[in-house]
């Protein structure tokens, strides 16, 4: 009798949450509250991003140690190889290892200026596949890598990009987490193409709830994610209405997740932007429940 498809979501999913290193003590407190609230969903892991070229190296390490100390979920450290020698990257990986990290999200990173082509460091790993192979030799890390449902802007073609993903998995990665996207069909088609190419590692959709639509459009343009016309239409006129925008974002993101669920996806990685509110609502709509105890404390 219940109208709408959201009600049908049974919550038989696994979630993971991505955070970025906070820059101020206020931001640190926000992250601590967010991670405490989201830990109620028993994430399979939480991850901490890494500034390209090590620009947030110390902050990443400090934030990672905090998450490890919290102990509420296994922690994955992102690690990029741009602008660093192999020795520097390996050293960072071993510092993560010494801090208790056993899962690395291995990434190439991007060049300094937006739009500038990536150039490998002369003594560095040339790309993420080489980084994965290097990490495998260093320690027994679980390794996740990036995937691009709408094709990485540097790729010669969709097939080249898929071949590159396969190289990263063949080098020892065991999971692909996707760039954010707003078309469920694009992601499901990509998953199908990956399976047809013999990829059997999980492809975990990266979900970005929108906070600032104009900014998201700009960011999406830079990384090749399309904004479907119906989505533009639902956010139209909301630039000065943050509360309504948030509610609309929860509805559209939950709808995206529901379509992915219907397409067979059961793992979801959330780009939290260090905020809990929207993600909590989306997870709830997907059938996960916050224990009453935690909700009362938040
Ligand atoms: P790669 O897999 O090396 O590929 C990049 C491009 O180069 C692809 O188009 C590929 O096809 C092409 N390519 C690679 N090798 C070859 C080859 N041998 N021949 C021809 N073409 C090749 N960035 C950060 O700075 N910090 C983060 O913490 C971070 N976290 C991220 C998390 C996720 C889940 C995702 C999806 C992205 C993240 N990024 C992060 C962004 C990432 O660094 C960029 O997208 C970067 O441009 C590519 O990284 P990659 O690991 O996918 O690179």
Automatic annotation (TrEMBL):
Pathway: One-carbon metabolism; tetrahydrofolate interconversion; Amino-acid biosynthesis; L-methionine biosynthesis via de novo pathway
A Pfam family per the record: MTHFR
Domain of life: Bacteria
Catalytic activity, EC: 1.5.1.54
GO molecular function, one term: methylenetetrahydrofolate reductase (NADH) activity
GO cellular component, one term: cytosol
Family to which this protein belongs: Belongs to the methylenetetrahydrofolate reductase family.
Protein name: Methylenetetrahydrofolate reductase
Source organism per UniProt: Aurantiacibacter rhizosphaerae
């Amino acid at each position: 009798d219940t109208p709408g498809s959201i009600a049908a979501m049974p919550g038989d999913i696994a979630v993971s949450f991505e955070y970025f290193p906070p820059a101020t003590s206020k931001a640190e407190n926000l992250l601590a509250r967010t991670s405490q609230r989201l830990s109620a969903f028993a994430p399979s892991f939480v991850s901490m991003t890494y500034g390209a070229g090590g620009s947030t190296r110390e902050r990443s390490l400090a934030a990672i140690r905090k998450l490890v100390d919290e102990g509420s979920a296994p922690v994955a450290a992102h690690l990029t190889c741009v602008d660093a020698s192999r020795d520097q990257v390996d050293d960072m990986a071993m510092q993560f290892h010494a801090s208790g990290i056993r899962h690395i999200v291995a990434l190439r990173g991007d060049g300094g200026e937006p739009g500038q082509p990536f150039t490998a460091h002369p003594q560095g790993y040339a790309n993420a596949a080489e980084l994965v192979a290097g990490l495998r030799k260093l320690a027994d890390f679980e390794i996740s890598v990036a995937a691009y449902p709408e094709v990485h802007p540097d790729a010669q073609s969709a097939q080249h990009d898929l071949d590159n993903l396969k190289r990263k998995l063949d080098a020892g990665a065991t999971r692909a987490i996707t760039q954010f996207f707003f078309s469920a069909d694009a992601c499901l088609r990509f998953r199908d193409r990956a399976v047809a190419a013999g990829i059997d590692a999980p492809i975990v959709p990266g979900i970005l709830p929108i906070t600032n639509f104009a900014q998201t459009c700009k960011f999406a343009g830079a990384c090749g994610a399309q904004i479907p016309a119906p989505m533009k239409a639902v956010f139209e006129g909301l630039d000065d209405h943050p509360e309504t925008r948030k509610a609309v974002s929860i509805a559209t993101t939950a709808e995206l997740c529901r379509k992915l669920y219907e397409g067979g996806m059961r793992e979801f990685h959330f780009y939290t932007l260090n905020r809990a509110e929207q993600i909590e609502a989306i997870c709830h709509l997907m059938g996960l429940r916050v224990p009453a105890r935690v909700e009362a404390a938040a």
